[in-house]
Amino acid sequence: MAATAKSAVYLLLIMSCFCTLSMVKGNPLGICRFDKIFQLGDSISDTGNLIRERRVGPATVYARLPYGQDFFHRTPTGRCSNGLLMIDFIGIIYNVPLCSSLIFLVGRV
């Protein structure tokens, strides 16, 4: 429980930083052009590698619907969510292309 509250505080702090940057006159990232975002985290921020991480990956619950039915190819994505993650929304704000899960890049498990 304490870890969840701590994570929520960190998330709130990060989001307030992004909101502050968004309210600054002009585009603070205008001079910088980003084409990729790297995020380290847990299952909340995983972009689909859970299917490929372990031998039982394709048998995990994340390899079946509803995980991913509202995302890209409307097939299971390996994400622990059914849609976009926080990092996806940050990428949309700063015009960074969304990445599909690794399973779609490789094509097979």
Description:
The protein has 109 residues and is an all-alpha fold. The protein is built from 4 helices and no strands. The chain has 2 domains: 1-28; 33-106, no CATH class. The longest helix is centred in the first third of the chain and has 22 residues, at 2-23. The model is unreliable at 102-109 (pLDDT under 50). This is GDSL esterase/lipase. Keywords: Signal. Belongs to the 'GDSL' lipolytic enzyme family. InterPro entries: SGNH_hydro_sf.
Secondary-structure element order, as H and E? Answer: HHHH
Question: Could you give the distance between the termini?
Answer: 35 Å
- Poorly predicted regions are 102-109
Shape: globular
Derived from helix and strand composition plus strand pairing, the structural class reads: mainly alpha
Helix content: 25-40%
How much strand?
under 5%
Number of helices: 4
How many distinct beta strands? 0
Major sheet characteristics: none
Cα-based radius of gyration, to the nearest Å: 16 Å
What's the domain count?
2
The pLDDT mean sits at 68
